[in-house]
Each structure stands twice: as C-alpha cells, then as structure tokens.
User: What shape does this take?
Amino acid sequence: MTADALVDPRVARTRRDVVDTAAELLLESGWDSVTHAEVARRASYSKATLYTHWPTPLDLIAAAIEQICSVDHHPVITGDLREDLRAALADLATDLTTGHLDRLVGGVVERANTSEVVRQLRGRLYTTGTSSIRQILEAHLSPPDIEPAITMLTGAVMVRVTFEGEVATEAFITDTIERVLGSTSQRRT
Assistant: This one.
C-alpha cells in the first residue's frame, strides 16, 4: 500500500482545493496576495485548517509553485530543431503574457536572496520552464553549447516580453533562433 493510499480522502481533497486556490491566486495577483485569510476565504476552509498544513505563506506559495510546475503543457517535440524551438519559445512567450508567469517569476526573482526555499523554487521554475528547450537542444547540439543556447533563447524571449513589453512575434523568435544556432560551433550529427 502506498503512502498516498493511507491519506484520508478528506485531507487529500482539502490539500488539493487549497493548493489549487493558492496557485490561482498566485498567478492572478502575485505573491503578496497569497495569504492564509484570502486562500481560506476563496477555498472555503478555515484559516486554522490552512495553518495546520501550511504554517507560513511561503509554505502555501511553495505548494502552489510545485503544483504549477507539475502540470506538463509543453508543445510536443517532433525532432525538427527549428520548428520545435519556435513552438517552445512561442509557448514561453504566451505563458509570460497570458499565463501570468511574469508575476510568478517576478516574485521569485524579487525574493530569491531572502530564503533558501525561494532559491529552490527559482531553480524548480527554471528547470521546469526550460525542460522542453533543453530536451530539444540535447538532441541536436554538443553539450558545451546547450546551457549558453538555453540562456540566450529564453533570455531573449523574457526580455522582449517582460522588460520591453513587446510581443515576441514569430519573426522575432525565428531571428533569435537563427542567431543562437549560428553561434553554436559543435553540432551533433
């Protein structure tokens, strides 16, 4: 029997409801909105219940980020390097503009030097957010080229969308891909 099978279904439902609510609130309104009072109100549970399972707001946020990261919604990888990168970067741009990922990333960046837990959350978000790009590049580039390519590709999209406030158009994404791939000297065959 697994540990999950031993959890009371009511406790499992409460955890799911609260974490789903915390995740929605985090994406909608940012870190400061995730309070025990607001999550309890929206999820229709008592604050005491929340404090029992998540003693601090950071515990609620960590659970919410873990839930957000567990949802795999990356585009399907076809094996075509450029097309797969276009799809993955367009997905990232969409998440930053319409999925409110910008609030999530902004909260992590703002607080990363305040807590080891937040540093770990930053790493989890980065690993999850770049996993499909990493998988695409690992199939086509030499190992030394992978990390710099990930940084340049994702960085270009993040700067375009979050700092410049511009749309990462297909033309922008295509140009970025060509520039980055042009800088990779060792490709696998």
